[in-house]
Amino acid sequence: MNDHRDHIDETTLLKYYLNQLDQEAKTAVDKWLEQEENSKAYEQWVRIWQKADAVEDFEKIDVEANWQRFQQSVGTGKQSFWSAWKVAASLLLVAVFAFIIVKYNGQNESGTWINYQAQANDDLVTLSDGTQVWLKEGATIRYPQEFVGSERPVELTGEAYFDVAHNAEKPFKVKASETTTEVLGTSFNLRSASEIAPLELVLLTGKVRFSTENEMVILQPGQKVALNSSGFITKAANDNVNYLAWRTGLFVFENTSMEQVMADLANAYGFNYQFQSATFSSCPLTSKYEQESLEDIFLSLEVLFGAQITQTGDQVTIIGGQCN
Q: Residue 283: in which H helix or E strand, if any?
């Protein structure tokens, strides 16, 4: 980057970017930015900060307070002032780049990321490495147009089924709800936390490493993990055959409690529910529904149990009902 900053140094530019300058200093930077070369130089700095996605962390920095403490430690003489100012600017640059390097070491450096939200269930997205991702309606995936770093990072909000292309030298990482799932090549279903259902990962094939800031577990096929109310990882065998019903449209219930029936339906169709009768919530159901609408399933349950099921928006209420 060409250096045509005159007396405007990096420390001032960072304070300008964080809106920490007084009006006089801000006006001076505004005037300085009127020069095309200066404006281009500043834009390059902004792209670096934004690319690192570090703005939220930078906004916590009080540049003025830290500068004052530094100034007091080096003296107030004219010569030492300007020398210290240059040193401070240099140290700040080092700190900024160190932050970026440490935080994003080994991650993808692609400049183009894509945000995609599924408009219907089983919406297919194929990534540049051949990985296929089937998204549940409303789910959002963020991924680089090309995987060019030492990792293959993506971010998920909602629920999706992943069939990851194998690459032992470039791990595939999915971030969802403050967790990271790392795989080399496998298939799994991942649901991020929401108001309707908690985070859950079910592994079909291969092996994955699932981690939070404080814990890490390895999953084998047929296992699932979730986060309990305290945020700790719980691992168990997956005994729910309906975890992919949102994709397949197939529900199989074998002596399944109505509480679990409604939980499976709620996850697939996206609603909250409430039983007015705690007794009915424990009643068992043995039945199979394939490619049926939620309205038809509710009608079937009403007939089977003599219950009344009402829905207002995304809230479902189950009234009455008796075990068979």
A: none
Contact 201, 188 (CB under 8 A): yes
Q: Tokens 């949102």 belong to which residue?
A: 246
Provide the CATH number for the domain around residue 127.
Answer: 2.60.120.1440
Beta strand spans in the chain (E): 113-117, 123-126, 132-135, 140-144, 152-157, 159-163, 172-176, 179-183, 187-191, 200-205, 208-211, 216-219, 223-227, 233-237, 250-257, 272-275, 284-290, 307-312, 315-320
For 93-108, write each residue's pLDDT tens digit: 545 554 444 444 444 4
Clarify whether residues 118 and 211 are in a common domain.
yes
pLDDT digits (tens, 9 = 90+) for 285-322: 999 999 999 999 999 999 999 999 999 999 999 999 99
Burial class (CB in 10 A: 0-12, 13-18, 19+), 89: middle
What CATH code is carried by the domain that includes residue 258?
Answer: 3.55.50.30
Quick one: CA torsion of 124, 127, 128, 130, rounded to 10 degrees?
A: -70
pTM over 0.85: no
Task: List the domain range (segments joined by +) for residue 261.
Answer: 245-320
Please check whether residues 174 and 270 belong to one and the same domain: no
d(CA 190, CA 243): 10
Residue 248 has pLDDT above 90, yes or no: yes
Residues 6+ apart with CB under 8 A from 154: 127, 133, 141, 142, 143, 172, 173, 174, 175
* Per-residue model confidence as pLDDT tens digits over 137-189: 999 999 999 998 889 999 999 999 999 999 988 999 999 988 999 997 799 99
